Amino acid sequence: MAYRISKLRPRSAARQEYHFKKADPQKTAISTVFRKWIWPPLAVLLTVGLYTAAFPNINIAETAYLFALPFVLWACTRPAFKIYSICALLTGFFSWIVLLWWLRHVTYTGTITLSFYTGLYFFLWLMAVWWVAPRLEGKPFLSVRLPGLLGLAGLWVVLEHLRGLLFTGFPWLPLAASQWDRPALLQVISLTGSAGLSFILIFFNLGLAFYLRRILGEKSSRSSWYERICPEFYTALAILLCAVTGLLWSEVFGIQSQKLFTASTIQPYIRQSLKWDPAAARENLATIEKYTLYGTAVGGDVVLWPESVTPWPIKGDDGARAWAEELARRVDKTILMGNMAVEGETWYNIICTVTPENGFTEPYYAKRRLVPFGEYVPLKRFLPFVDKMVPIGDAFGHGDLAQIIPLRISNRDYRVGSLICYEDIFSRLARQSVQAGVDFLYVATNNAWYGEEAGAYQHAVHSVLRAVETRRPVIRCGNGGWSGWIDEFGNVRHVLRSSDKGIYFRGSDVMEINRDARWASRLSFYVRYGDWFIILCGLFILAGYFSLFLSTKEKNTYRPGDLLRPGSSVEN
């Protein structure tokens, strides 16, 4: 039998009465069944669904404000460690296997392994919620609850950062990437990097969860108006509004648009199964030539080619070099391309230019961040039976510098910052290029590995983040999927599309590239000072931990008369 001590609302401040109220056994049984058998699988399904829906291809950005609610609300009820931890582990794994399912076109084993690994970071954060959330209830807001929530939000950011560093690094789809098509909210990352926007989104989840907890846990008719205020939610809302309105007015309005050039963007869409097939090499070159001639016929000051476009290296194979130089002379345009170079026995994935006057020119940019198991095998001596997926050469060499590529177009000189393939998911690489002094960033990529699903779209959203962080236009050219350009404020200005095939098609298009003249020679706060916000989040974690430690230092021991204190309760 269960009893609960409840407080009668006093008629005056000096008078309070208490009585024992018999709990409804039927309601208690229903509540137990719901919490034990219904809510755990429901929390997993809701969290996985809301989290994955925020990213491409579903692209419902608003679900990023809600996805953590089920587990935060559940954690506040003090669930058993075993069932909560199992559900948290499943949530992390299923969330990422849904997001990375396109990777199965390359490897099923890698898809499962990588999904489990990335899901562990999600799991760790959910377990921190299980430990922190119930300890915040009933504590002072400024000294305990606010530091605790800031610490949880900071932990999410730090875990995202660690995911981009540990075990070769995989910073794919930070929470901030869910807002890639919401330019008003993106502007904060020019100050903080993508970490700042991830922090805002996760803090809003926490604030909203505590607001719902307040509403669902109290009868508003029996509470004073000031007791119904949830400072956690209003703090989260204030941070969100400040991030949107302040930076929107200070940066986006008053743009001084300046035309740079027009670019003929060539998307050959050569199937991955044929790209390195010697029997298909001549046909591949004919495809590239055909669409280059067609693209330049309709305009364009410069020609853009995707990653490792020719079947032979432009440096190291005289035939491939002669072919590219002759084509540049025929179209009378400089070609900015992704290609390969061989020096000695080492292969490099590069970006270079071929001009009508001088042919293949150096310096070229060599890829700094290679794809694990794609271009090299980590710990090869321990995994001699594992080979890389690119079937050419031995392990690729990597570049060490953010090499600037000089590009002359219509008697104007530009400085190109290069990123190859998934290098644009690493904000540090883009920062280094812009610090070296570039006019725009060029991403040469090949997403034909991953089928015609979400892979190319998910990859492209990272270029949106890099554009806003660095305040530089980002131009992308892909072998198959998502070629286009993004301005300094995260607006997607142009995407190559087919009326019936979307972004996955073979063709070309002409893009007019512009920039905001105000940022021509300026560096954003983030480019100047880097990941300072990560350090701040680390301080939030420490402050949250010590505030909880100090608040629970005194043991909760039973003392005579405790049951008669206002608001106390007991269940047997």
Instruction: Please give the CATH architecture of the largest domain.
Output: 4-Layer Sandwich
What is the H/E string? EEHHHHHHHHHEHHEHEEEEEHEHEEEEHH
The main sheet comes to: 6 strands, mixed
The residue-averaged pLDDT reads 87
Helix content: 40-55%
In percent, how much strand structure appears in the residues? 15-25%
CATH class of the largest domain: Alpha Beta
Identify the strand order in the major beta sheet.
7-6-5-4-3-14
Structurally, the number of domains stands at 2
Explain this structure to me?
With 572 residues, the chain is α/β, with parallel strands linked by helices. It folds into 2 domains: 3-7 and 20-253 and 532-551, no CATH class; 257-520, Carbon-nitrogen hydrolase (Nitrilase/N-carbamoyl-D-aminoacid amidohydrolase, 4-Layer Sandwich). It contains 16 helices and 14 strands. The strands form 3 sheets. The chain has a 6-stranded mixed beta sheet with strand order 7-6-5-4-3-14. The longest helix has 29 residues, at 25-53. The model is unreliable at 1-21 and 555-572 (pLDDT under 50).
Protein topology:
Blueprint: E1 3-8, E2 17-22, H1 25-53, H2 69-75, H3 81-99, H4 108-136, H5 141-163, H6 183-186, H7 189-192, H8 194-217, H9 231-252, E3 257-267, H10 272-275, H11 281-297, E4 302-304, H12 318-331, E5 334-343, E6 346-355, E7 359-366, E8 405-409, E9 412-420, H13 427-435, E10 440-445, H14 455-470, E11 474-478, E12 484-486, E13 492-495, E14 507-516, H15 525-529, H16 532-551
Parallel strand pairs: 3-4, 4-5, 9-10, 10-11
Antiparallel strand pairs: 1-2, 3-14, 5-6, 6-7, 8-9, 11-12, 12-13
